[in-house]
Amino acid sequence: EPGTESQVHLVSHEWLSHTHPDPSGVQLGCLQEVFRRILAGHGRNLFTEEDWVSFSQGHTASWTRQTSEMESSAQVDKFDDDSFADAVGEGVVWMDFLSIPQVCDVLDEETDALAEVE
Prior knowledge:
- With 118 residues, this protein is mostly helical.
- It has helices at residues 26-39, 49-57, 65-74, 81-90, 96-99, 103-117, and strands spanning 8-11, 92-95.
């Protein structure tokens, strides 16, 4: 069970059909593979070098030294492959496509309600 200090990993993606977010499980399979790689300690390999520095240290190469020091100090958690794997392994995943009602669901409910009235 996640603790009060557990990190939440928010996942968002494009729906692949009008009635189901991922009818063939393609995106779910990709997401599972990403988490497997992170848990195996290979999270860094999912990023370009510049993106990894930005993600793991809280700054980018294009910032001035002053901006870099100020912004990176605001990022409390710095990551390496192991701490990234720990954060994912001990955290929770929020998959927004499972939790946000879609327009097609609302329209179906309205159609059903109208049919009951008639």
